[in-house]
Amino acid sequence: MGLGQRETGLGRREQTESAERFTEAMSRLVSGVAVVSLRGADGRPCGLLVSSLCSYSVDPPSVLVALARSSRTCRELGTGAGAAFGVHLLARTDAALARVFAGSAEDKFADALWEWDGEVPRLADVPVYVKCRADALFPHGDHVIVVGEAVHCVLKEGEPLVYFHRRLDWRLGRALPGPPD
Q: For residues 7 and 117, what is the distance between their CA atoms, to the nearest angstrom?
């Protein structure tokens, strides 16, 4: 076996079926959604929508986010040590904004209300904004896991936008869909 390879005991077909089944299983995990933003090397804001995020530590206060390696935001973060970035937890009313940041537009901030918070692009009117400094990065698979130490938090009221079963508009309290046939 070569470096980076591991014995799985699964053939290519089983791996594909396993990945599809895993993706379906994880689509049933209710998660919040957030926009991660930072200033690119060209000075322009960049950002993307993430659903893989969580509180990581209280001491020091930290968040953990997973960024797709293929994203401009991840590439701009680079090695990341000390890089400033923002985490914006979205409200249920922010579904359209979430779709923009989930897309591949060159300038996702073009129609968004935002301002600079030092070197971090900060979206306006989101329920939670956390300004962070990247403390650690861990490449894994097609993502990079980033641990960011929170340096400033802004809180407002708002019902959260959640992601469930590949939908951004799912609301707590709705009936869950049945299992696939």
A: 47
pLDDT digits (tens, 9 = 90+) for 114-156: 999 999 999 999 999 999 999 999 998 889 999 999 999 999 9
Residues 154, 97: Cα–Cα separation, whole Å:
19
Looking at the DSSP bridge assignments, the partners of residue 132 are 85, 150
CATH superfamily, with its number, for domain 30-165: Electron Transport, Fmn-binding Protein; Chain A (2.30.110.10)
Contacts of 58 (CB under 8 A, 6+ apart): none
Do 165 and 28 touch, CB atoms closer than 8 A?
A: yes
pTM of the full structure: 0.79
Cβ contact 24:3 at 8 Å: no
SS (H, E, C) 4-21: CCCCCCCCHHHHHHHHHH
Closest CA relative to residue 93, chosen from 160, 166, 172, 36: 160
- Kindly list the domain boundaries of the chain, sorted by start residue: 30-165
Cβ–Cβ < 8 Å for 67, 134: no
